[in-house]
Amino acid sequence: MNEPNLRGIAPAQAISCILGGIPTLFGDASMRRQMITGVLVNAVAFLGLFVLTVWGVFAATSGMTDGGWLLAIAGWIARIALTAGLIFITPVLFMLLSDIVRPMFNGKIFMAARTRAGGENKEGPEGWMNEARVISNDLRRLVRLVVFSLLILPLNLIPVVGNAAYFLIQTLIVCHTMGWDLMGYHFELHGFSLAQQKVFCKQNRAMILGIGAVGTLLCLVPIVQFFFVSTNVAGSGLLSAAIDSRAALQ
Question: Which residue has the higher pLDDT, 68 or 45?
Fold first, then answer.
């Protein structure tokens, strides 16, 4: 089996691919149908996860808020910080969840956009073992995001400097996770192992952070974020075709 191509493209070109997913998706009737069905499934799953998580945060800190006034203040600070952190990582949570609950819809959008950009219409590895591997990788990224976000949360206890450091580090974590996720379908299509995915992301860090930043900003827009998740997938199809096109010229 040939080793997959580990070279990306220029960050500016990659970003234009992600943004190009917007007109590509809305200009194609079949992709729009896949988007609408997938959005409904994704929205229900995401809202359920969000409500359950917020409820868990408040339940976990209820013992603090029922104590003395000092403990109560600390409890409410913890609640506000955890809820704010959850809202901050909402775009990536939404995108990662979409990979888990709507692969059939997203996969068709990705391949349709890829072929429209001149990419080969090919199938990735099949079978339940591959599906389990893909979902496992998605869950790893999700757990990694949550764990890292919790680890840097105490920075908020340091006024101004700590808040600024938290925002900067969290932004980098979110953008890197989103960028990695946007490359997920390309990785699956070409049979990248988890180790090879990490190498690709490391060697193309500027591209990963660039597309991750754009993808995150699109998914921060309330309500329409449900649709931008699908345009991000279409954009990743354009990006996949561009990466393969460059590799073919080398």
Answer: 45
